Amino acid sequence: MLISPQGQGPNQARLGEICQKSTADVIPIGFLNVFPDQGAGGYPGLNVGNGCPSGTFAKNEQGVETQLLTGCTEIAEDIPKCQKLGKKILLSIGGASPDTYRINSDESAKKFADFTWKAFGPKSSSYNGPRPFGDAVVDGFDFDIEHNGSNGYAAMVTRLRELYKSDSTKKYYTSTAPQCVVPDKQLADAIQKAHFDFIWIQFFNTPGCSARDYIAGTGKFTFDDYVTAVGSSVNPNAKVFIGLPGSVDAVYKPEFYLNQQEAAKIVTDFKSKYPRQFGGVMLWEATASENNQVGGKSFGNAIKEVLVGQGGQSGSRTQNDAADDKPAPKPQPGSEDDKMPPPPTVTPPPQGGVSGMFYFPTIFVTSPVHDADPHATGPAVFPKPEPPTTLIKVPQSKKD
């Protein structure tokens, strides 16, 4: 499965165009980056870069202008088109900027979840508030929480999962993008206490636990620790992803970039070690990956071929190049995981095809981003190991 976010950049393509050209299976749109506890008028704020040129700021019940963009007709038109192509569209919450968002209490977390579901989930005749994407319904929510601690996120995710059950017409997902340090200050608590389907870990920009440390034999690469943490969590069947930069330009220090051969090694090592838990690769970010060509294909497409077994460590160099597996527990009969549909069919990416776009703190033409934050930031249970996913994340703004 390929996950490719759309972000908040000023020059991103339309979501529909991304879906037409990309082999991505999941596209997160970023970001809902102002939270109600800090937002004007008690509303959250939405920033999707140039993805909402027709939008205006919604007013609350008292007529106060908020930071919630609404009337995003282009996105509203494109979401169902993408879904007809078999792609899942998520809304990403948080991001790298601003660094002031936080949830003050579990009670406000539940209210935030209720508002988010009404505004972006299935349309309800009893709700008359703003719906930024019109009648379009997202397929779930991504949590890229990078600031101000863990308070409220487990409660918010749990409340969203409860709300998912109110719509039996489709399957909804939750995902998260922690840093490689264990435990992650913002998300470790939520990963343990709430149900996530996908965990894509940012193994770059943090020395000591990065993918570069794994290749160099230094520090401590923490994929094993995340597999262990997920194994003791509410959803021990969540898929774990390796997050890598899509080019040398996507990170603040060139050494965090892995060339194709290095990336292929880390992917094949952990795909083999954890065939059930391994979900695939998240690339930061889509534009950097697309510009980083490997024998006429983007870096992301080259990595996708490694994931589906068509590529390997002997592939062409890019322009930037100069523990025992423990089976995941079986789902309980009748549980949420036991009812999960099979994952989307994975098809090899076309030569030269777009592998991703922005992370909507720009637009998450998902998975990932743009001129964005290089430090920014599947389906749970399968009867047998499935082809992994490539997640391409689009950044919001460069991080330190």
Write a compact overview of the structure shown.
The protein is of the alpha/beta class.
Examine the secondary-structure arrangement and name the CATH architecture: Alpha-Beta Barrel
Order of helices and strands: EHEEEEHEHEHEHEHHEHEHEEHE
Q: What's the CATH class, please?
A: Alpha Beta
Helix fraction by DSSP (H/I, runs of at least 4): 10-25%
| CA gyration radius, whole angstroms | 19 Å
Unreliable parts: 313-319, 321-331, 336-400
Output the CATH topology: TIM Barrel
The total count of strands amounts to 14
Average pLDDT confidence is 79
- The N- to C-terminal Cα distance equals 30 Å
CATH superfamily: Glycosidases
How many structural domains in the coordinates? 1
Strand content bin: 15-25%
Can you summarize the main beta sheet?
10 strands, mixed
Q: Which structural category do the helix and sheet elements fall into? A: alpha/beta
Total number of helices: 10
Q: Numbering strands along the chain, what is their spatial order in the largest sheet?
A: 1-14-11-10-9-8-7-6-2-3
Which descriptor suits the 3D outline?
Answer: globular
Protein model, in words:
- This protein is α/β, with parallel strands linked by helices and 400 residues long.
- It has one domain: Glycosidases (TIM Barrel).
- It has helices spanning 15-21, 73-84, 106-120, 153-164, 188-193, 211-216, 223-231, 260-273, 286-291, 299-307; strands at 2-3, 26-34, 45-46, 56-59, 65-70, 88-95, 140-145, 173-176, 198-202, 239-245, 278-284, 293-294, 297-298, 389-393.
- The strands form three sheets. It has a ten-stranded mixed β-sheet.
- Strand 7 (140-145), helix 4 (153-164) and strand 8 form a beta-alpha-beta unit.
- The two termini are 30 Å apart.
- Residues 313-319, 321-331 and 336-400 have low confidence and may be disordered.
